[in-house]
Specification:
By secondary structure, this protein is of the alpha+beta class. It has two domains: 156 residues; 54 residues, no CATH class. The chain has eight helices and six strands. The longest helix has 29 residues. The chain binds zinc ion.
């Protein structure tokens, strides 16, 4: 890769958009895996979970997204003189940490792209930790690639509609239905319903039909 040439403006826009969407990718990947049923067991009828190998792949992708975004946040923050608490980041939950990292990177993309020879601790092909010197452009392109990989995993969930009815579990209007799926997911509390069950809980007509 010719890192000295950097990225053209169109690519830069593309990368910024991808970085901005990574936190949402992360959440969608999480929904894609399926939910643990503890605490919401009464709603859990028909919950579908991915088979374990697929699940591990998706979790690995989630982890890579967080690692890559966080890895670049520290040098970017340092170059801009903005605070970034590495220790705090290490202790933070991955979702909010990723949002924080992606906001920082998207807002300061030219700084990321200008970084050269940043030493980073990475896993090599033999699963050993090694220090590699990498450029910001490599990081930007890897974040773009991670967004694309998430898109491919989530392609099966495409055409997702936000439903107007509030979630029966949390009351927030954040329930989404993937076209043709027999389940719906609440983006707010994460509960998952079988479609018929959801209709019964939210649509008075569905209840009447059943009673008659
Ligand atoms: Zn909810």
């Amino acid at each position: 890769m010719n890192t000295s040439a950097g990225l053209c403006l169109a690519d830069e826009r593309h990368v910024r958009q991808a970085i901005t969407r990574l936190p949402e990718d992360y959440v969608r990947l999480h929904l894609h895996i399926g939910r643990a049923t503890s605490g919401t067991a009464e709603f859990a009828t028909g919950t579908k979970e991915l088979p374990v190998p697929l699940r591990l792949d998706v979790e690995g992708l989630q982890r890579e997204i967080v690692e890559e975004a966080v890895r670049w946040s520290e040098p970017v923050a340092e170059a801009c003189g903005v605070p970034w608490d590495t220790q705090h980041a290490r202790d933070s939950r991955p979702g909010p940490l990723l949002t924080q990292a992606c906001t920082l990177l998207a807002d300061r993309l030219p700084v990321l792209l200008a970084l050269r020879d940043v030493p980073q601790l990475v896993w090599d092909v033999d699963h050993q930790r090694t220090v590699l010197e990498r450029d910001g452009v490599d990081g930007a392109l890897r974040l773009l690639d991670l967004h694309h990989r998430a898109g491919r995993v989530l392609a099966v969930d495409r055409k997702i509609y936000r439903l107007p009815e509030p979630c029966p579990a949390c009351g927030v209007s954040a329930v989404e239905h993937a076209d043709g799926a027999d389940i719906v997911d609440c983006r707010d509390c994460g509960v998952r319903f079988v479609w018929d069950d959801f209709r019964r809980r939210t649509d008075p007509l569905a209840r009447l039909e059943e009673a008659s």
